[in-house]
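--- STAGE predict ---
source: upstream dedup step, 1 unique chain passed
mode: sequence only
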Amino acid sequence: MSENKSDRMPYQLYYYRQRLLIENIDGHVVDIGSVELRNDTLLWQLDGKDASGETPNDTDVLFNDVTHALSFLFVDGQFTSLPDVSAEYGDRLDNAPSRELVLSELNDRDEQQVR
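--- STAGE serialize ---
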């Protein structure tokens, strides 16, 4: 069970070359989804989760929508199951659109739901 129910984990979400990437505090980066620009609309889809959406061609709106679809459990699972692609992207993410987000770790109630 969680010792501290208010633990919050910071992440950096990136949009780079039609991909959604997320970086954890250890500097590991995983690819969590795709983005397609069609008729001035961004169509996004998270891999491994039934979450997708359409937003105007505006990265702030994209990040707002994607952030609402993310949970600590999903993101933590992606870091557990997907390869670290930080070496593939190197410093190219330094200039990519990004958004910092903080997700709450599981609390006791959440842990019982996933057992």
